[in-house]
C-alpha cells in the first residue's frame, strides 16, 4: 500500500449548515489535494509543489474536475433483503409477511449468506457508500458472513443479528435465551475487530416478547458502548399491533424506553408517526431518528417530519432501508428525502443534504472524528463525484456556477454512474465498468 495524493476539487463539512448559503459550514478547495497513507488521511489542502514533500513517493491520482468528498454513510439497511427490493405490497405488514420473512429464511444457509454479503458490499461501494448500519437475519451465520466480508474489504461497518421470537415464521424465530446468547457471542467475536462494530438488534417491538426485550436490555447493560438498532412508528397498522402487544406501556417509543434501549447509540428507523411524548423521549435520551425516504414512499408509510423533530433537538440520520428502500444510492435517497420534505412544506438545501450523508450521519453514529470527514487522522474512506457523467447532466453543468447547484444536480439526477471512484481505507474499491 503506497501513499496516494488525490488531486481534485475537495469538499468536506465541518459543521451542520444553518441554511442554503452557510459557507462557514464546509471547507472547499478548488484545486485541492488529499494525501492518504496506511488507510488514513494524512493531510488535506491546496494542490501545490509542497504537497509532494508530505509524501514524496506517493502515487498521484488526478481526479480533476471531479469533487472529492468523504464516503457516504447509510445508517439503516438490511443486507438479507437484496432480493426483496421492488416487491409489491399494500403496506408494511403485508410486505414483511409476504416477501421479507420468506426471503430472510434463506440466510440459514451460510453459503447463500456469504454470496449475498459479497454482492451487497459491491453495491455499497458502487454507489459511494463506505459505512453502513446493517441488519443481518436472525441466523448467526448471516452475521458471520457479513462481518467476514466487510473485514476482508477493510470496511467500517456496523451490524447485528436481528432478535425476533414471535409473530414471524418458525424458521426466523429465536428464543429470549438464544437471542441473548447468540448476540453476545457475535458481539464478543466481532465488535472492535478491524473496523467492525456490533449493533444489538431487536428487530421491532412487534417481533419480540417481553422476555426477549428484557434480554436485550441485559445486553445493553453489559455492553453499554455497543450500538442498538431497531424500527419504530413506521406504519399505522404496525403501531396498532404494538399497542395490543404492550397495552401497559404508553406508546411505541415507550416500549424501548421501558426496556432501557434508548440512548445516544440507539438508531431508530423511520420515526414517522410520533407523539409529542415520544419525541421528548428521543430528545432526552439522545437517541437517533433515522429518515428512510425511499422506503417510506415505496411502502406508503408516511412523510417524515424533520422540522418537528429538529425543533425538539432530536438527532437525525438518513438511510436507504433497502429492501423496503428502493435504491442503494444516498444521492437517490436524499433526492426522495427532498421531495418528502417539499410535500411537508419543509426545505432541505443541497448543503444540508450532503452534510447529512457524510458528517451528519457520522455524528449520528458518534464517529465524526473517524468517518464523514476529510480531516487528517480520519479514515481514508472517500468518494469521487462526477457531475458530468451523464450527457444531460453535462449539459446542465454548462450553466452551473455555484457549488450548491452542482450538489443539487448530483442529488437530483445522480446514481452509481456519477460515482467516479470510491476509496475504502485509501484503496480504490469501485470495480471499473466492464
Ligand atoms: N420493521 C421491521 N422489520 C422491518 C424491515 O425489515 N423493513 C422495514 N422497512 N420495516 C421493518
Ligand atoms: Zn429497516
TrEMBL record:
CDD domains per the UniProt record, alphabetical: GDEase
Cofactor(s) this protein requires: Zn(2+)
Any GO MF annotation of the entry: guanine deaminase activity
InterPro entries named in the record: Amidohydro-rel (IPR006680), Guanine_deaminase (IPR014311), Metal-dep_hydrolase_composite (IPR011059), Metal_Hydrolase (IPR032466), Metallo-dep_hydrolases (IPR051607)
Job description of the protein: Catalyzes the hydrolytic deamination of guanine, producing xanthine and ammonia.
Keywords noted in UniProt: Hydrolase, Metal-binding, Zinc
EC number assigned by the record: 3.5.4.3
NCBIfam families linked: guan_deamin (TIGR02967), PRK09228.1 (NF006679)
EC class name: hydrolase
Pathway: Purine metabolism; guanine degradation; xanthine from guanine: step 1/1
Catalysis: reaction(s): guanine + H2O + H(+) = xanthine + NH4(+)
Family that this chain belongs to: Belongs to the metallo-dependent hydrolases superfamily. ATZ/TRZ family.
Cofactor descriptive note: Binds 1 zinc ion per subunit.
Transmembrane stretches, start-end: none
Domain spans labelled Amidohydrolase-related: 68-427
Protein name (database record): Guanine deaminase
Amino acid at each position: 500500500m503506497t501513499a496516494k495524493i488525490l488531486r481534485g476539487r475537495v469538499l468536506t463539512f465541518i459543521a451542520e449548515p444553518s441554511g442554503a448559503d452557510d459557507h462557514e459550514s464546509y471547507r472547499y478547495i478548488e484545486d485541492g489535494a488529499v494525501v492518504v497513507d496506511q488507510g488514513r488521511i494524512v493531510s488535506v489542502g491546496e494542490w501545490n509543489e509542497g504537497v509532494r514533500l508530505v509524501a514524496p513517493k506517493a502515487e498521484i491520482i488526478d481526479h480533476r474536475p471531479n469533487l472529492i468528498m468523504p464516503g457516504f454513510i447509510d445508517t439503516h439497511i438490511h443486507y438479507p433483503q437484496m432480493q426483496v427490493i421492488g416487491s409489491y405490497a399494500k403496506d408494511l405488514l403485508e410486505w414483511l409477511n409476504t416477501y421479507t420473512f420468506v426471503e430472510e429464511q434463506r440466510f440459514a444457509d451460510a453459503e447463500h449468506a456469504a454470496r449475498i454479503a459479497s454482492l451487497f458490499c459491491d453495491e455499497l461501494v458502487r454507489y459511494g457508500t463506505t459505512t453502513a448500519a446493517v441488519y443481518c437475519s436472525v441466523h448467526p451465520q448471516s452475521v458471520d458472513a457479513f462481518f467476514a466480508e466487510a473485514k476482508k474489504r477493510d470496511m467500517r461497518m456496523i451490524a447485528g443479528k436481528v432478535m425476533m421470537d414471535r409473530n414471524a415464521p418458525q424458521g426466523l424465530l429465536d428464543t429470549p435465551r438464544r437471542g441473548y446468547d447468540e448476540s453476545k457471542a457475535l458481539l464478543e467475536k466481532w465488535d472492535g475487530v478491524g473496523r467492525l462494530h456490533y449493533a444489538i438488534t431487536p428487530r421491532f417491538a412487534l417481533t419480540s416478547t417481553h422476555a426477549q426485550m428484557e434480554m436485550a436490555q441485559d445486553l445493553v447493560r453489559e455492553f453499554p458502548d455497543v450500538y442498538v438498532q431497531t424500527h419504530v412508528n413506521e406504519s399505522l397498522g404496525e403501531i396498532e399491533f404494538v399497542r395490543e402487544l404492550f397495552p401497559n406501556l404508553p406508546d411505541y417509543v415507550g416500549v424501548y424506553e421501558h426496556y432501557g434501549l434508548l440512548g445516544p447509540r440507539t438508531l431508530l428507523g423511520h420515526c414517522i408517526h410520533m407523539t409529542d411524548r415520544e419525541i421528548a423521549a428521543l430528545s432526552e435520551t439522545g437517541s437517533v431518528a433515522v429518515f428512510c425516504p425511499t422506503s417510506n414512499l415505496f411502502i406508503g408509510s408516511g412523510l417524515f417530519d424533520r422540522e418537528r423533530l429538529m425543533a425538539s433537538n432530536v438527532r437525525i440520520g438518513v438511510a436507504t432501508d433497502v429492501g423496503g428502500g428502493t435504491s442503494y444510492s444516498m444521492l437517490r435517497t436524499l433526492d426522495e428525502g427532498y421531495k418528502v420534505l417539499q410535500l411537508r412544506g419543509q426545505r432541505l438545501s443541497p448543503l444540508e443534504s450532503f452534510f447529512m450523508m457524510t458528517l451528519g450521519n457520522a455524528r449520528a453514529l458518534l464517529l465524526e472524528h473517524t468517518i464523514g470527514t476529510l480531516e487528517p487522522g480520519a479514515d481514508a474512506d472517500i468518494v469521487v463525484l462526477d457531475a458530468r457523467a451523464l450527457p444531460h447532466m453535462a449539459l446542465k453543468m454548462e450553466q452551473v456556477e455555484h457549488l450548491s447547484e452542482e450538489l443539487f444536480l448530483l442529488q437530483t439526477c445522480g446514481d452509481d454512474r456519477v460515482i467516479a471512484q470510491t476509496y475504502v481505507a485509501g484503496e480504490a474499491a469501485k470495480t471499473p465498468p466492464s
